[in-house]
């Protein structure tokens, strides 16, 4: 392990008694204002009637927030909100889906294009995506401040250890993990930069659908790929070959790809000399896209099979159960160091679990012995409402595995013992 960043940023910007202002909300506001500024420059260039931008801004704000909230309730917590529908209105309690926001924007812009702008739908989409891309970067920065939606454990030197409960006085820390919020900020900014260049420096806007398709692939194809190293947002996603984020990204990726293929075909049809090049480009695009989307599935499938084996047998190839009395296990743990496949060290001290010398859970509950399967201890995350629960199964010699029930991809083995 080369090191990592301990992320302790306070999600609260201001706390004025009952009024709390969080960085996440501020980033949403900044994103919407930046999007307004970018879009106003485009509408000035297009010489649209005065006041059009103000109407568009209102449509965007309401469409984004309503779509993001409804999307989260439908896609991620329908079981809860179907029984408590009025809680969908409690936006201040959190829970916004970027895919839901995208669907909301598409619907709102369809109505605005038809009744307010009097332009074609695709014309509007080609220009609004610049604002959406920069707004998306700001929202992901808000996720970073909130210590949420991060990736799998990793030993990369830029890994972040996030606070598990940043608003609590007693919080634990995650294993050093991929800061996928930063990855998403980067691809939003890269997509934004490409779109700005295409719009202002080329004639791409004259090709209906080109800017929109570049946005769809830059944001949603990248999101699809990134989900392979992200922790599941909800427990039910653990057994899914493609998680909810990926399934919701597919329609956008396929739409963007269809537009690209149509534009390549149209380019070839315009000039007979380019027809063969057009079909060659189309075939190459489909081959590359298929490889990018299908190859990572093999790794996900292998991981699911491994997790299934862990769920059924604790850990494969563990040998004989450890030969010690249940009362001896706590002392054994106090003198033993464990390491995960990602290089993160775990040890016990005073009945608490530490990862990379940071307390993540405890105190441990009494040991339960099972002559045929070894010994078990468990510990909850430090916050009373924590969803993190750690279970350790102790085996002989160098075989012991820590199972994080929230994410089974953090298994450990024994590497040192002073006994």
Descriptive overview:
The chain has 419 residues and is α+β, with helices and mostly antiparallel strands. The protein has two domains: 5-284, no CATH class; 326-417. Helices cover 49% and strands 14% of the residues. Helix 4 (98-117) packs antiparallel against helix 5 (121-145), helix 6 (180-201) runs antiparallel to helix 7 and helix 8 (244-270) runs antiparallel to helix 9. The model is unreliable at 310-319 (pLDDT under 50).
Tags for this model:
419 residues, 10 helices, alpha+beta, five-stranded antiparallel beta sheet, single chain
Q: In short, what is this structure?
A:
With 419 residues, the chain is of the alpha+beta class. The protein has helices spanning 23-45, 52-75, 78-81, 98-117, 121-145, 180-201, 210-226, 244-270, 275-313, 329-334, and strands at residues 5-7, 12-16, 19-22, 160-162, 336-340, 345-349, 352-355, 358-361, 368-370, 374-380, 389-394, 400-404, 412-417.
- N-to-C series of helices and strands: EEEHHHHHEHHHHHEEEEEEEEE
The figure for the number of domains is 2
Number of strands: 13
Distance between the termini: 25 Å
Largest beta-sheet characterization: 5 strands, antiparallel
Model regions low in confidence, pLDDT < 50 over at least 5 residues: 310-319
Order of strands across the biggest sheet? 8-7-6-5-13
Please compute the radius of gyration using only Cα atoms.
25 Å
Average pLDDT works out at 80
Number of helices: 10
Helical content class? 40-55%
Characterize the overall form. globular
Strand content: 5-15%
Which structural category do the helix and sheet elements fall into? alpha+beta
């Amino acid at each position: 392990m080369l090191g990592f960043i301990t992320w302790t940023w306070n999600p609260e910007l201001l706390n004025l008694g009952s009024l709390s202002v969080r960085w996440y909300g501020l980033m949403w506001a900044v994103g919407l204002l930046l999007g307004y500024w970018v879009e106003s420059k485009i509408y000035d260039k297009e010489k649209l009637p005065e006041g059009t931008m103000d109407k568009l801004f209102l449509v965007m704000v309401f469409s984004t927030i309503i779509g993001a909230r409804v999307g989260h309730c439908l896609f991620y917590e329908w079981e809860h909100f179907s029984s408590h529908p009025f809680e969908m209105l409690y936006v201040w309690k959190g829970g916004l889906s970027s895919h839901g926001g995208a669907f909301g924007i598409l619907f709102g812009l369809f109505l605005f294009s038809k009744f307010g702008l009097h332009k074609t739908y695709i014309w509007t989409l080609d220009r609004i995506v610049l604002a959406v891309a920069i707004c998306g970067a700001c929202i992901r920065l808000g996720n970073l401040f909130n210590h949420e939606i991060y990736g799998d454990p990793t030993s990369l030197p830029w890994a972040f250890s996030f606070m598990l409960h940043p608003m609590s006085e007693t919080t634990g820390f995650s294993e050093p993990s991929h800061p996928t919020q930063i990855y998403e900020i980067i691809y939003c900014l890269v997509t934004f930069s490409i779109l700005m260049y295409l719009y202002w420096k080329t004639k791409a806007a004259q090709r209906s659908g080109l800017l929109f398709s570049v946005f769809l692939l830059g944001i949603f194809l990248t999101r699809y790929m990134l989900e392979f190293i992200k922790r599941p947002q909800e427990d039910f996603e653990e057994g899914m070959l493609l998680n909810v984020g990926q399934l919701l990204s597919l329609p956008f990726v396929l739409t963007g790809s269809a537009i690209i293929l149509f534009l390549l075909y149209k380019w070839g049809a315009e000039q007979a000399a380019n027809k063969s090049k057009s079909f060659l480009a189309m075939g190459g695009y489909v081959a590359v896209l298929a490889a990018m989307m299908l190859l990572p599935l093999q790794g996900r499938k292998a991981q699911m099979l491994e997790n299934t084996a862990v769920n059924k047998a604790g850990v494969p190839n563990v040998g004989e159960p450890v030969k010690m009395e249940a009362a001896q296990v706590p002392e054994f743990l106090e003198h033993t160091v464990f390491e995960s496949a990602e290089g993160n060290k775990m040890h016990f001290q005073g009945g608490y679990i530490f990862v990379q010398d940071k307390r993540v859970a405890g105190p441990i509950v009494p040991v339960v012995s099972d002559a045929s399967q070894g010994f078990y201890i468990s510990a909850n995350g430090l916050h009373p409402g924590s969803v993190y629960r750690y279970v350790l199964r102790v085996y002989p010699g160098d075989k012991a595995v820590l199972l994080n029930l929230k994410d089974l991809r953090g298994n450990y083995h024994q590497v040192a013992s002073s006994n």
